User: Fold this.
Amino acid sequence: MIELQNVSFEYTATGANGETLHKNGVRGLDLTITDGEFVVLTGGSGCGKTTITRLINGLIPHYYNGELNGSIIIDGVSVPNTPIFETAKKVGSVFQNPRSQFFNVNTTDEIAFAAENQCTEPERIKEQIAETAASMRIEKLLDRSIFELSGGEKQIIACASVSVLSPDIIVLDEPSSNLDIEAIEKLKAVLTDWKAQGKTIVIAEHRLYFLRELAGRMIILDNGKVVKELHAEEIKALTFDDTEQMGIRPLSLSDIRFNGCKTASQGNTIRLENFDFTYKDGKHGINIPELELPENRVIAIIGHNGAGKSTLARNICGLERKCRGTLTLNCKALKAKERLRSCYMIMQDVNHQLFTESVRDEVMLSMTDKALTDEQKAGRADEILAQLDLIEYADTHPMALSGGQKQRTAIASGIASSKPVIIFDEPTSGLDLAHMKQVAGEIRKLRDMGKSVFVVTHDLEFILSCCEHIVRLENGEVVQNYELTNDNFHLLTGFFDGH
Amino acid sequence: MQIGLIGSSKNVIFDPDPRAKLSMLLAVNIVMISGGAAGVELVLRAVCAALPFLLLLSIRHFRAAVIYFILLGTAVYCEGFVLPYTHGIAGILLMIPCGILTRFTAGYVMCWYCVKSVSVSEFVTSMEKMHTPYFITIPLSVMFRYFPTLGEEYRSIHDAMKTREIGQSVKNPLIYIEYVLVPIMMSTVRIADELSAASLTKGLSAGGKRTHICEVRLTAADRLLILCSFAMIILFFVF
Assistant:
């Protein structure tokens, strides 16, 4: 049993100017989770759901600094007073980012890692790995390099590495945020098994649809406090309107409504020809002899893992020089090198594309027009920042911004570059409802400015809130290419239902 | 770069213990770096030049082995039989690359072989068997683990610079370095932070004892290899 009694926690951090900042964790929280319960924590970014997972696995107060009050007790033992490696025997943790939760390069070593730390006999560990692998059906993933695996496979290995110690309690912090629908299904299967084994599961999530049947209790948080608690029956009864009103993601994909396209296409097209590209491994790549797409629209690129979505985005952008294909825009056929000059990509991890010391410099860096003076550039930059609600951060260091603000800074740089094509690589991974809607709004703004926008995404709700055209890839080839209308809507839902 | 993947696959003909590999690495580097080719030294150098070739064969990297053989063979041949007949600039132009190749190729290939064939956990286990303290083995293993990640991060940043059309246009190399380093350091800090948190929840603690599933055992062949490596080093210094 997990008991949190009157728990308050505030993170202390150092701000951009060296001052001490207090960031919200949780306030006056009372929560009791009984053995075998499946609890879903949800709410907007910064609501405190991740903090609760850290209170349970002991990272607070043993790793994250801050002010902690109240008591956290697991099976009668106080977590803050127990060394974290003792808590680790009882509580397993799965994190959001599959890239940064592996200590080893080899998958088998990684699964063994937790057991090795507990000084389990090597023979016993090997048996446990074999059992875990068999029950999770991941024998194929054993003894491989972490770097060869897809995001979904990494997350399954993360689950296996927790499972091997068979802890009674498992906490998961936004495990689905970097996963596609197929991988989410596999994650769901793992969670179902764990639930059947009677484990206590605490999961902090934005995407909720895959938890509908599993959740025994759902706790909605806001600003560090519990605002609503729902039980299994109530969760299943939630409709799209209910979740919309509560500000959380829907609990069923089929509930999501489609309002139809508002504007008609003007008829100009973008033509892709001979997009043929294979990676060095000779297996993955794309082969698109011809593809015609509408100009000045928001085009979603969908498909299963490894279908070539990101590869297509990289090739449209001109990042792969070996690709001989051309993209015809405004009657001009652009080769890879020229495409680099007319396309702008907003990457999944925006941290990689911010280079300067202030948000304004970042935007000005993209203005390559030599005719402009620095003052004109700064003026234009401020205009763009005002459009994206960033003007108050114009002098802030980009790395001091929140994730959403960083993404908007990258979008602002894209606008400043005055390139006609803007590509987003999974812009909504790990976003709550409010932020997802904000990104959708920004993408519509870009469209209204006359840009053609491509979006690589797994997020049905997001597609329905801003995309107008769909391209579906499978095995590197275009299998569907259609305008998103009421008549074609079933094609899209068909894909997300798994056909 | 993929680290330690070869050792785990089954088609390896002969896989020495990491400690044997390390002592061979040491011997090859010490012996090959000197350019002498007389008496005992000639024999030692011949053995040390052959070692990386045989080890490449043992992990079935036949192409790399052939390239190594041709490269080193040509360099040695040039140094021994062509160089005496050249004079002036031509002689220097030939001597410098040949000298570098004969001295460093074997050491470099040996190093590449070790990095490729020793996995992180094998490395940690064998370090611990040699009674190296944790405060050395754990940071070292994290470093090994981090190299490929660093490569991934660098590639993403390079792509971002290309799409933003900066990089090529930056004339000042210092600014280029800043543009690469700032995002790399930012993501390094973040990944290191998340990695530490994850390993803590898996029970890694400073000073605690651990067990290992990977078996690192010195076989008779390994002992022989270590003995020979050290014998070569001693012979090299005595003569």
